[in-house]
Amino acid sequence: MDINILLILQEFRNGAGSCLVSFMTKMSFIGEMNTVLIIMALIYWCISKEFGAYLLMGWSGSRVVNGLLKVTACVYRPWIRDARIVPDSKALAEATGYSFPSGHSMNGAALYGGGAIRKELGKTLRITLGIIVVLIAFSRNFLGVHTPQDILVGMFSGLLVMWLTFKLLEWVKAHPEKDILVMCAGIGAAVSVAVFAAVKSYPVDYDEAGKILVDGAKMANDTYKGVGWCMGFLLGWVLEKRYIGFSTDVPMLTRITRLATGLISYYAVHLILAPLVKSGISGAAGTIVSCFIEMFYAVFVFPLCIKHFEHPTSITSD
Asked: Which of 66, 123, 146, 171 gives 140 a disulfide partner, CB atoms 3.0 to 4.6 angstroms apart?
C-alpha cells in the first residue's frame, strides 16, 4: 500500500507542473540537516541562548535516535524496493542512508516542532510551525524518497525526543550540578549507538546483474554524523555553561554582527576545516570527529569568541 501511495503521488507530481514541485523542494530543503543546524545555531547565538540550546540538544539527540532506528530496521529506499518509483532528481541527491525513519521529518520535528510544543510561543506561530512540520514530512513522500510510514514515525519520534529534551532541561535547571551527569550519559549512549552501527551485520541483496543493491557500511554514515553532533553539543554545552556564560540579551547591532560573523566562520569550519579533518581520519571515526568539530564550534568555540571580542558590558550570564 505504501508503494501505491507513492505511485499516485508520483503521477500527480509529473502532471502538477514545476511550481508545486519547486515548493515541495523548498520545504524539503528547510528540513535538511545542515539547514536545520545553522538555523538553530543562529537562534542560540543571536536570539535566545536557552531556546537555542534546547533545540540543539533535542536535534542532536534525535539524530542519534534516527541513526539507531535506521541501522536497526535497514529498510531500503522506495525506488530500490520497486523500480516503478522514480524520485525527483534533486531530492534523490539528498536521500542518504536507509529509508526508515525519515531524517528530514525528524529534523523538521526537532526545529519547527520543537518550537510548536513550547507554550510560551504565540498560538498563531505554534500552528504555523506545526504546519511546516507536516509539509516537510509530506514533501518527502511527494518527491518520492520516503514512504508514509517513514515520515509518520520520523515526525512522532522527533516530537517525542523534543518533549523529553524539554523535560530534561527543566530538571537540569532545577539541579544545575547534574549537567555533567547528563553529558556523560548522553555521550555514553551516543558511543554505544556508534559501536552498534559499526559491528552489526547488514542485509546484502543483489540486482539481476549481481551488483550489491545497498552497502550497509555506507548507510551507517548518517548514524555516525548524529553521534558526532551529539557528543559535540553535550561537551560544548557543559563547558559553555560553566566557563563562558554568554548572553543573548544584547543590542540589535551586536546580534547582527554575531549573525554575520557566525555564519561566515561556521561555514569556514563546515566547508574547509571539517572536510580536512575527515580526509585525514578514515572511516566512521573521521565522520564522527568532523561533525563533533562543527557542533563544538557552534556551541562552545564561537561563544568563546563572543566573550573575548565583544564589549564586556554586553556579556552577562543568562
From this structure: 146
